[in-house]
Amino acid sequence: MTASSLSFKLAVLFVIAGMAMGIGMAASQDHSIMPAHAHLNLLGWVSLFLFGIYYERRPALDASRLALVQVIVWSVGTVILTIAVAALHLGYTAFDPVAAIASLIVLAAMVLFAYFVFRPARGIASSPTARLTPAE
Ligand code: HEM
């Protein structure tokens, strides 16, 4: 499986879970886990989907094992962080170190992504606009 394909699949699963969480908060009128909902949607849906778009436009990177590792590490970190943030906001203070470790996991995944962005570009998919020639 490519990194983009895994990103898109996991992102859709995360947003379904995030939306269900939002509906649960709205229905119960208890917004105490709102930060967990926000993190799940923004890390799990928005960021992961953006990673997928980036990878899909770079086929060589998309097919690499390292990009797949980045998506998996990010996703595992997102799940742990969401659970830990929810638990903290429900009063389970013992989850503080879990949240701290999870935050370092997602940071590590973002640093790996930054490495992909800053290293010299290889295999970027050409878009139709790249083939346009000036009128004169
Ligand atoms: C069925 C879909 C959704 C429902 C029912 C829902 C519901 C909610 C509720 C009830 C809150 C708490 C508001 C408050 O206490 O002030 C909230 C907050 C939030 N939601 Fe959602 N949500 C949904 C989808 C999403 C999605 C897709 C995203 C992101 C892409 C998102 C991002 C956020 C953020 C960032 C906050 C925090 C806002 C703040 O700090 O005031 N939500 N949502």
UniProtKB/TrEMBL annotation:
It comes from the Bacteria. The keyword Transmembrane helix applies. InterPro entries: Cyt_c_oxase-like_su1_sf (IPR036927). The keyword Cytoplasm does not apply. The chain crosses the membrane at residues 36-55, 67-92, 98-118. Keywords: Membrane, Transmembrane, Transmembrane helix. This is Cbb3-type cytochrome c oxidase subunit I. It comes from Microvirga tunisiensis.
